[in-house]
């Protein structure tokens, strides 16, 4: 990656961070720069047909970013880069917000919590190996058949969640947790 793309990448990461967390927060127990940096460095790889749509949702964030900067046609190499886990999760959280009439920032942190990454704030010593293990478990679908260890764990599942696309996992999660008509409410699960 050339210096111009590296600089753009740094600016883009800050833009992504602002989508999910206050950029001016200085309390390390409330910031997640290290965790989100690792999510940004890890490529989302899709195995199940149609999960490429989740990668495209993530890559669409780049187009939005470039459009806001009015440089959309000048960075084709930037657009062609693989989708990061951070981009995929932000893109998916926007889809979830739309489907549930909720808040994309709250959805992002719900997905982080479901992956059991929410305790990795900047005050906590972070192990790259531990984070990679959690992300690999999700990417390579080494979680349980009910989705525990992934981003959409279910209490009951008629279908092995490891074998279906994320969109259908998302739909099952929304239905099981009665989240289909949420309007920016607190992200606590409601009883079924």
Q: SSE string, helix = H, strand = E? A: HHHHHHHH
Quickly count the helices: 8
Structural class: mainly alpha
| Helical percentage | 40-55%
Tell me what portion of residues adopts beta-strand conformation: under 5%
Rg measurement, Å: 17 Å
Give the CA-based shape.
globular
The tally of strands reads 0
* Integer count of domains: 1
Structure description:
- Helices cover 52% and strands 0% of the residues.
- With 192 residues, the protein is an all-alpha fold.
- The chain has one domain (3-176).
- Helix 3 crosses helix 5.
- Mean pLDDT is 89; it is low at 182-192.
Chart the SSEs and their pairings:
Layout: H1 3-20, H2 33-41, H3 52-69, H4 76-80, H5 85-100, H6 104-114, H7 128-139, H8 166-176
List keywords for this structure.
192 residues; mainly alpha; globular; disordered C terminus
Concise synopsis of the structure shown:
Helix content is 52%, strand content 0%. By secondary structure, the chain is mainly alpha-helical. The protein has one domain.
